[in-house]
Amino acid sequence: MKHLHSFARRAAAFLLAAVLSLPLDLANEHMAWERPLWLQALMGGGVITLAELGAGLILNVWLKLDIWDYSRLPGNSAW
Question: Which element (helix H / strand E) includes 8?
Answer without folding.
Answer: helix 2-30
